[in-house]
Amino acid sequence: MSPQPSPHPVTGPPAHPLRFSYGTNGLTDLRLDDALSLLADLGYDGVGLTLDHMHLDPLAPDLAARTRKLAHRLDELGLGVTLETGARYVLDPRRKHGPSLLDPDPEQRARRVDLLLRAVQVAEDLGAHAVHCFSGIPPQGTAGGATGTTAAEAAGEAGGEAAGATAGQADPQGVSATDDGVADDGVTEDAVWKRLAEALTPVLDAATDAGVPLAVEPEPGHLLATLDDFHRLRTTLGSPDALGLTLDIGHCQCLEPRSPADCVRDAAPWLRHVQIEDMRRGVHEHLPFGDGEIDFPPVLEALATTGYRGLVSVELPRHSHAGPHLARQSLPFLRRASLPGPQDTGRRTAPGERAPVPEGRTP
Question: Of 152, 168, 223, 269, which is most buried, counting CB atoms within 10 Å of its CB?
Answer without folding.
Answer: 223
